[in-house]
Task: structure prediction
Amino acid sequence: MGSWEPALDAAGVHDPGLRAQYGRQRHQVTEYKREMAAAAGLLLPYAMIPHVIAAAAFMHRTDTLQDSGPLADRRTSSARWEREVSKSLATGHSDNPELRPLLNSIVSHPVLRDRVADYLAAAATDLDFTGFDTEDDYQRYVDGYSLPAFMVVAALLGPDGDQSAYRSACRTFIDASQRLDFVNDLAEDLADGRLTIPVRTLEEHGVTRADLEQARPLPGVLTLLTDQLDQVDRTLADAEAVVDLVPAGHQPLLRCIIGIDKLTSTAARSAGTALLHHPAGTPKLPALRLLARQYLRARRHRN
Result:
């Protein structure tokens, strides 16, 4: 049985049909983001696990609709999904098994409702995204898309009541995490027609888009990537302040999330211009050690 059934009990999910729907979403999240599902299951208080799974599954469903098929089809399916979710949020009811767990979690954690609505309103931004001209454009993307997306799950981990200071700290973290993703996934994004490092930043380093697309291991390219990762590391260091803003039982997961990004940044730095061919993987053994350390902390808060 493991911890899943006790987690459903602790979260107050007793209806057999709803338990099964939460279970299917747990399977979905595990399939597309195994590390996140494992960390949540090991590090969070039991009562929070199903709600985080429901929020993550909603994000995955929304992302899938945006990323699958020709652009015109993605626009149509995303608009249809937005209407369905908006109606469900307004009525508090849906027959869609992909939405019922989310609506139930909103009853338990009302803060989730507005964060879902924010993300839904922002999601269309990513359909038209092809890159940035300036650093300011990147920062607007973080505000307009990355932060609303992150807050769907992060709001569940934050303090009760006013989350203004917490949201600001989350913004610092997601600035670092999004930049890391863009640097580490540079080769894949370029193959999809997206240049995720600002054009002006390339120009400042004497680098062209063609240099990146053709994977030229030039000194300027290495300096460009290193400077981006330096920004990531500085911002991640600032983001550690977010841990002190959440309940003690949620701190191990946030420490783990930040720690994984630190490990990934180190791996990306070691890869250097090889990032023009493929992303750097998070080193498994250090990641397992990090998870083990945070698991020992989390055991004190398990209920």
Remarks:
- The first helix runs from residue 4 to 10.
- The mean pLDDT is 94.
